């Protein structure tokens, strides 16, 4: 988050972004585009009307005053289109560099059989679904696809901005490749999974450009509210001429227009789409691609977070922390056997056993004795170890070891081992049993290390009303211990993909919104079912298709931040709406007395701000109404400051800033502008 | 202002708050269709009604069906009233031999009573026969009130039900509310009024000799029975033209207090019932707190202004508060309080003439109505109107907690926003639009008796009262003309049913939604913050719209008065 907000504040108002945005602001005056925003459209129509009346109208007002009104009305519209253009500008710059990547893609299409050596060079745009291409060292991958043969390291910096290469290989959960990324070693054969124009890169370009932007549900509802308020104020202003006639006077059209424009919610209407675009943009900068704005909004609404234990709650690798001998065996003997069994084990767990044995017991066995034969780990036996000729040292899951050594199962040592096993599980660890020649020596305590600070994060989430559920393949005993240590609200142990899906459905039935992240093909149904499914970019194509967001960094912890970004987007909208509506009180007090004082001089007392003249009061209100838009653009683009806390304090804080502030700010602002207007003699 | 005056306001508020829970619980039993102690006696009557009319009270109606049945029922009743009034001369129970009511007056009156407004363009004692009063008018006093409460129940069900298709049964709701609530309470109140000296007779009038020996004819009739439901159902249509200022309608200080309490009784009870319905009574109390704050603020301003009196008269050596148009029996405090209650609650009964209030004192009743009759409001109508504001308040501010806005477990989305805005916009559209028309065309300008801003206030008040379904008159406006009878009739119709239809649509949509369980992240809709927010939204969205018109009416009037100019 820190990196993200720094980046955005630096690049918000540079000349490269502002200059084109000014041009775009004028282009967006096109009525076809403007009508998408009914409030700004109304403002433009009124501005146009006053422009015409400037030439033909006769209402006893000074031409200088009317000209200024017209200018400020047009500026109000332009500030709105500028805000939107500026928000889009950032995406456009990014899209341009992505396009450049895409332009240079050519493909080596495999002719005939999949493993045939015959290839032809074709432009990437000629590739169709199910074509197979060969990608060799140094080549750019021409299209999204699935690796069907080979393994390669791929630099995905073009997409993720992360230059460390990643491994892509056929089969398993790391088979998806993305167009525009570069193979830096080896070669792979890739089956194309998308037709031109529908690839990840294309989607990303469309997303960051805002071309595919559709109004999100909350945006639609908000637009309806703004239209409703506009209609109500149209009635309020439209009936004034009749009332004034009754009172024996008349109100010039320009003044009515000024009142209308200040009352209708121009501030939030002008910034509404900029807020939405900026929200998506923040996510993109955070290296998360949302497939729709709807998904970002849903992220703010999340009630339940399903988090995978490994990598999110615990650091990925378990560490050996203790040797627990059984049957009176010396602990050193156990350590020695464990070391021997782990020397050839290159997994992080295996290495941690070696380290523990060396550090704790000073064992310095560096290599396997000559002639020793390694017993490799298989999913069937779940045992690894070494056969030194004379001795067979085994290490593996407790059940597996007992099963492989039926003779040891009924010994006292086995009973003790089972007790120790339970103890380790209760402490949140994973036990590994060690046996030599069928004799049980004891267990190795492999500990899950809960990430630093994660407990506090979950505390914050709880304060925000979000429940966290840990998903793990561990047994319930281990899971509950880790859950307690990490401070999650609930856990799902020995979880299968089906269990995950069922859990999501159950929560949704209860009216809760669920977010999860996943990478494997078997995660796809759950990702699709979840309200927010974040697929890891390293994951399979199926997972990436099923989720409604893709995390380019493949960091499952980010789910928590994604929720924060969703909330921030909604909060920004709500804060500016409240601010906009609260502003109206002061504007009434500026314009009503100015408007009616000629009819009933007594109404001058409503001029609580003590504005100079009726003309300056009206002008000041309209200037404030226009200037507040560019002043709030930074807030709209960066989002309101977001701190995780409960809804009650959050509302109190935001209501004080944007509600009360919105009530008071215009009184001060209009007064100051009025002083300036009178000071330099504008009215 | 006097200690006694404040004591009255305090006593009234105290008794009212004590009534909230018992009445709310009784309403909740009716809302749920549970048995009440009265079922022993009235259960067979209820079942008899269903059997006679072939209604299945357990049929769950969709919002559309509920709306259509409600409309047919109300339209039929209005036609009946129109027919009775037009044929009055031919019908029995007409001791004073009144002729037929004119077409435009009958049109206006039928809608007026059907829409729970009870705007009266006529003087009852010299226009309506006893049959017209009892059959044509009192029937609406019961059934339009029952309709309002039924509609509130329908909206409550929208919030309370989960993934449901129906919002209850209109016929069952109306029957139960009438039989188990309005009828028994009215009987008790009528007996109390009779004991207090309110006439209840079918005789037309009585001649008495005055102290000077002259003969005076006093109109009589079945007053007590009508008086009871007039208040309880926030109807407000008096038997006599002077309404509750008339000693036969409101003879004592005690009847005055009871009348004020009975105006608010069901309205406040419904807030509690809402809380029970959605499973959290604090939700109901929060709404009541917002309503009571607005009410007490209005009462304070009105009482203060009336007690301060008219500086022009002070200058003439006539000190004291403003007693013009008030009954000496009640005085300033009771009259100010009554005026705020009757306009806050869409009742429209008066015990003093609002036209004679000081400018700002008279603006409070006007403003109460312009808020949409949501400060306690009409029976049923007040709470459903207020809930529409609550939906807007949740939507405007709810996003600020970073979630899709929710209210009592239901997500507030574009459909709810659209329909709520639609319903709320009806009020300014009709009030301001029609006032604008009346203030420029000759037929409209012929109405007000006063000139200047005060005359404008009279027009504005009439349309506000009609659209908001209040029915109180500012007086000072000659309304029994084809123009005003017609326009006000339409205004009352739109003001009632054009809000109900979108409101029922909201209810239907909400009922179909899933329930979102409350969490620490949910927008808090109980507590002070929420109450303050509700008040803010009601004032800004509901009230600010009328500021220009208020500035040209009562505010200009008041400021002119300070400068010594009267209208």
From TrEMBL, chain A:
Signal peptide: none
Upper classification of the organism: Bacteria, Pseudomonadati, Pseudomonadota, Alphaproteobacteria, Sphingomonadales
Subcellular location: Cell membrane; Membrane
PANTHER family: POTASSIUM-TRANSPORTING ATPASE ATP-BINDING SUBUNIT
Recorded GO CC terms: plasma membrane
Reactions the enzyme catalyzes: K(+)(out) + ATP + H2O = K(+)(in) + ADP + phosphate + H(+)
Record-listed Mg(2+) binding positions: 519, 523
Membrane-spanning parts: 37-57, 69-87, 220-243, 255-278, 588-611, 617-637, 657-677
Residues at which ATP binds: 345, 349, 377-384, 395
Start and end residues of each P-type ATPase A domain: 109-209
Role noted for this protein: Part of the high-affinity ATP-driven potassium transport (or Kdp) system, which catalyzes the hydrolysis of ATP coupled with the electrogenic transport of potassium into the cytoplasm. This subunit is responsible for energy coupling to the transport system and for the release of the potassium ions to the cytoplasm.
Protein's name in the database: Potassium-transporting ATPase ATP-binding subunit
PROSITE patterns: ATPASE_E1_E2, COF_2
Keywords: ATP-binding, Cell membrane, Ion transport, Magnesium, Membrane, Metal-binding, Nucleotide-binding, Phosphoprotein, Potassium, Potassium transport, Translocase, Transmembrane, Transmembrane helix, Transport
Subunit structure of this chain's protein: The system is composed of three essential subunits: KdpA, KdpB and KdpC.
Highest taxon above the source species: Bacteria
UniProtKB/TrEMBL annotation, chain B:
GO molecular function: P-type potassium transmembrane transporter activity; potassium ion binding
Entry-linked Pfam families: KdpA (PF03814)
Membrane topology summary: Multi-pass membrane protein
Keyword Metal-binding carried by entry: no
A GO-annotated cellular component: plasma membrane
Major localization listed first in the record, in broad terms: membrane
Annotated localization: Cell membrane
TM annotation in the entry: 6-31, 66-85, 134-156, 177-195, 257-274, 286-304, 330-353, 374-401, 421-447, 459-477, 483-507, 528-551
UniProt keyword terms in alphabetical order: Cell membrane, Ion transport, Membrane, Potassium, Potassium transport, Transmembrane, Transmembrane helix, Transport
Keyword Translocase in record: no
Family: Belongs to the KdpA family.
HAMAP family: KdpA
Function noted in UniProt: Part of the high-affinity ATP-driven potassium transport (or Kdp) system, which catalyzes the hydrolysis of ATP coupled with the electrogenic transport of potassium into the cytoplasm. This subunit binds the extracellular potassium ions and delivers the ions to the membrane domain of KdpB through an intramembrane tunnel.
Subunit text: The system is composed of three essential subunits: KdpA, KdpB and KdpC.
Name of the protein this chain belongs to: Potassium-transporting ATPase potassium-binding subunit
Gene that specifies this protein: kdpA
